[in-house]
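Might I ask for a little of your time on a matter of protein folding? Here, with my thanks, is the record as I have it:
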Amino acid sequence: MENKKRFSAALYGVGDRVRGILEALPETVKNNTEEIRLRIGLPLALTVNGDTVFADFGGKVSFVLRSGLPVAYKQDIEESYRLLCGNSAYAHAEELKEGYITMKNGNRAGICGTVTDNGFLKDITSVNIRIAREIFGAANDIVKSFNGENLLIAGPPGCGKTTVLRDIVRQLSGGVNGKYYRTAVVDCRGEISGSFKGGAVNDLGAVTDLLFTKNKAKGIEMALRTMFPEIIAFDEIGTTEELKSVTESFFAGVTVITTAHIGSYEELLSRNITRELIESGIIGKIALLPRLHGGQISIFSAKELLHRAAV
């Protein structure tokens, strides 16, 4: 699905007034929008190629904050929340405890409000619709250097880690390196595959198996034992349970490709999970994505990182 269609498809999560303003925006803006942000009493904001711009009336955008820009009212936020939940917040209770709602086509809406004692959200104050984008070739440099080692794709939030992971899977499963790698994707939120209660919208290559599960660690174990993959790919490693599953995959001879929220070289060794992955020798190669879009991806071995830290 092309990016303009993804933008339009995400607008089911906003009400008629806001949708009319957003639908009138220039095509170049729609094609490159990564986030749509609604905040009570504040201008409608978009993240476009990593930068914040503001939607204006008449199909225009403003690059500066000024008076007269269309704002999101309380009723806009409430309507957006209702539409995203499909009129049933309780159907998304487990997701909302984590602060998000899974949307169609791999999009995801972050929700802010008041957290109740049972972890539920009420009195919603802002909505952030993140639009999944498919960029063919985003991982070209990484794929060229791929030699079967376990790979950690690291970078700050919003830098495109999932986009790069998706393209790696597409290329390796699609035979770009002269081999069709049997790949199992464990997709907890539908962001990698772009799916919602169904098959993949995004191109994940010719020999990829897709497993949806809320329990990532269990999903890795299931994929390892039932699909006999050469590669297991999933997003955002963050728990000791997931680390244990990755370790089991490593000793089973299966390559793991995953991501982590990291802002710098130093953070790779300051966070417990990533430090253990690197120091144990499980992760062989690291791709550090830049904070700014269009910057150079740094690719280096875990040994290089450890040597640099020791100096």
Remarks:
- The two ends are 47 Å apart (CA to CA).
- Residues 173 and 181 are 5 Å apart (CA to CA).
- The longest helix spans residues 161-173.
